[in-house]
Fold these 3 entries.
Entry 1:
Amino acid sequence: MSESWDEREPGVLQLPSGRLVRGRGLRNGLDPAAARPTYGVYLLGKEPPEVPWEARWLRWPDFRLPRDRADARKVLTETWERAEDPAERVELACGGGRGRTGTALACLAVLDGVPAAEAVEFVRRNYDRHAVETPWQRSYVRRFGE
């Protein structure tokens, strides 16, 4: 049985409910000593490489928004629900780990009760100060709360 993330590990965001989710940039690689996820959601314009854990691909081109917004809401909601289980190590990742990953983490924060108007700042303060890179990504997070 696995354990949840160590909140001191790089990229781990603690949501107000206590759920832990790791954000990461795929271009940075994965430290061989780092804990492995049990479930990953990969936010990419093209199919991600295979990984040895359960994974889901959410088609999301760089600097843009998800191709299918209804599917994105479903996947992000399932991801947030899975993160409640302390035996799960859930990660969200895109190429650089900031724009798409930050946007998805902000959407999880909205699901977790952070007001949509404050979710981007929450993620920038607690994950990466450069998260959520474009105006349309910020707008997507605000609308995600509706």
Note: The radius of gyration is 14 Å.
Entry 2:
Amino acid sequence: MSEKKVSVLEGFKVFLMRGNVIDLAVAVVIGAAFTQIVNSVVKGVINPVVGAFGTKELDSYSSCLKGSCKTVNGEVDGIQILWGSVLSATLTFVITAAVVYFLMVLPMSKYLARRAQRDAAKEGAKEVVELTELEVLKEIRDAIVAQRGSGHDQ
């Protein structure tokens, strides 16, 4: 029974030490910190800009679909649509996506494209070298055949 516990624990240790699990953990931590930065930008910059046209809190923007939408005894009279919170979440998403694309995806794709070009250039140079070596070997073969042919004539 103790052998099973050891093997399960060792299996768990192997699982934790795999590179992709550690990479995923780092990505989650960085993502959480990044989310706080984006939320701060939305609250500190975007909301005041929108607030210049209305209120600073996007969450307070709403429309009443039915009834007066006044709160009476803790209950809202009517059907209220809180489109401000949707707008705030959408702005947060768009800003996050833009930052991820322009600071991470775009530079990485440019780097990979340059790397692919370098690799292709190296492969092209290697083929040229191989062709040149092949031509030299053909010349050597032709010279040997010519020497043998002239040696038989004498």
Note: The chain has a mean pLDDT of 79.
Entry 3:
Amino acid sequence: MERIIQHVREFDGALVVLPGPDGGAPPLAWGDAFFYHAPDGRVPSNAQPYGTITTKDLPGDTASDLDPPDRWRVNIHVGRTRYRELTGEDPHTPDGRPHDHAAADRVMPHPVYGAYGWVCVVTPGDRTTDTVLRLLRAAHDDAGRRSARRHGPTSPRPRDDGPARGR
């Protein structure tokens, strides 16, 4: 887990949020990690993380069986095209194949957010760590492009001197 967090920290404009007891985050988030494209170092107010690490079962999300020791899951927004390439399924119309979401070291649809183009890997190991790192890099770059489209190039705003006088 630390290797993945460190890898993401090295991306230009990356913000890694690690909630804990001192930051005011709810206890449910403690121990998890959230990855954002945030060149200003602040959590974006209008964007979700492009990747997360979940260290425990959550309400409505228990299929990965994360409560036993040394189990955790990395979750990555990969979009529809990469999702199809990785899973062989369309995120909006899954083919009904059963998935063992508790299986470790396998790229698979996210058990809750797969329909939105998210994949996950429980406790990445030899087979998937390099793929996870590559997918996180691509997700970070995608988030940067989305941010640039939303905010556009920075340029000074025209000055507003109020109503014109004496014309």
Note: The two ends are 67 Å apart (CA to CA).
